[in-house]
Amino acid sequence: MRTETYVYMHILNFLPGDSFINAHLPPILPGYAAMLIAACILNYKQAVELLAVTIVVIFFLAWDWLMQRYGDLLCQKVWLMVFPIARVVYAVLLVMLVCWLVFDTAKSGTRQLVSFAGLVLLILLMALFSKRPTRIHWRTLFWGVGLQFVFGLLMLRTDVGLKALQWVGNKVETFLSYSNSGAKMVFGESYEDHFFAFKVMPSIVFVSTIISVLYHVGFMQWLILKIGFVMHVSMGTSLTESTAAAGNMFLGQTESLLLIRPYIHQMTRSEIHAVTAGGFASVSGSILAAYISLGVKASHLLTASIMSAPASLAIAKVFWPETEPAKVSREIKMPRGETNNLLEAVAQGACSSAPLVANIVVNLIAFVSILAFMDETLSWLGALFDYPQFSFSLICSYVFAPLAFVMGVSWEDSFIVGELIGIKTFLNEFVSYERLSVLIKNREEGKPEYVGIVKQYISIHSQTIATYALCGFSNFGSLGMIIGVMNTLAPERISDFTDCGLRALTAGSVACFMTACIAGKAVSLFSELRPNDMPNSVPNSHCWSPLSPS
């Protein structure tokens, strides 16, 4: 049974041995318990966070202990109980979803149904153009979208979820603010004058260092296995796919591939497609820190990263269904950190961020320059026909505006969000987020919504959907990079990598759009949205662009 083998993989690699536990826990636990009790008595409001972390750690330690000793028996018992009633459970959940849609629509109006219709449309299109439509594994799709929905509704619709998400987002922003100390020491008090280079980039160095430390102590591998375990058991995906998808939540495309490096040459073409699509549908923790530093909400970025992981597996398996038995069905061994001690992990994490920072900076310079050149060239050509507003950005806004609209963006904002999606797809997601950050800043500074016929910012609802839709490496530049990396890891599979490339890019993009649709359905519409969303004229996106030459 695959569940049993994954349980073995899940617990054997990173659980401390009994000798370690027996030697270190007895003297530590009483002192820690006394400290926790004293902290709760003296200052409960500040100690509640430590108490919550302690409860979570105890739960997972107990879970690992239970699975290590009784995992096979529990899996068999649960499987025997669940399998006979699985279809009934699916039917009940489907009825509950329909009832919720009816009541929610009656309460909030039909506007948000557009997002749900967009989600259904995206899935139907992917099924229609599937490699093998008759071999689609519907369980994977059902659970993938279901996990998206459940997490999205819990985080974005419930009071507890919203408060938890806001709390986590605030903590992440506070945590990232510590990178300012290093930036100030190196670049001086006026480091914010060069915001992107001296404020945003240091956050990448800081987060890269922390991830290296977490990798050294084994926490990152442990967390990836935990999340991969949930997706493997619920969605029925293979071990390699589940592990890579979980790794994509925290690591970059190439780092996630290194987690399954020994198994790439054995993977089926459908698995290669799913792993590649997962890389396109996510961003690394270090890059996430840069987006947060730009002013994009941390809570929405974190939610998008988590929701897109099951979505990428689900839609990848629709677009390229599995027709071969998985060759990797036994224990997967996660690579341990190569550092010998904590200080070496800190140094290695900091140094490894240097190429990433340099890559981001030079690519951003190149892509923004190319975009400006293309816009001006097309504007010059358009001026020959008395239409100087013609530009690459404007083309993107027209092409992708319908997609933005079906995701739930208001019609008057669809052209701006469509432009952001187009720039992200053809150039770079960093450029799109930089432009989105300017729109956010314009709103927060209270600038007028229109200057002439040109919108200066978009609604909060549209802004939220755009945040989710852009959160992924799904662009043509990343396609070339990931094929090159996979060719280095398994050169004998280069033909399979190239065959899967464009389909994986499409699947990764659609996974991001699915997440945006669910966010559009889950996030409440704000009062600023007017009933009549159709503008009298299309916004001239080239005019509002903060990156256009003056």
From TrEMBL:
Key words of the record: Cell membrane, Membrane, Transmembrane, Transmembrane helix, Transport
GO biological process terms on file: purine nucleoside transmembrane transport; pyrimidine nucleoside transport
Localization (cell): Cell membrane
Topology of this chain in the membrane: Multi-pass membrane protein
Domain of life according to the entry: Eukaryota
Membrane-crossing residue ranges in chain numbering: 21-44, 50-66, 78-103, 109-129, 141-158, 204-225, 272-294, 341-370, 390-411, 465-485, 505-526
A GO cellular component entry from the record: plasma membrane
Residue stretches making up the Concentrative nucleoside transporter N-terminal domain: 117-189
Residue stretches making up the Concentrative nucleoside transporter C-terminal domain: 300-520
Location of the Nucleoside transporter/FeoB GTPase Gate domain: 197-295
MF annotations from Gene Ontology: pyrimidine- and adenosine-specific:sodium symporter activity
Membership in a protein family: Belongs to the concentrative nucleoside transporter (CNT) (TC 2.A.41) family.
Name used for this protein in its record: Sodium/nucleoside cotransporter
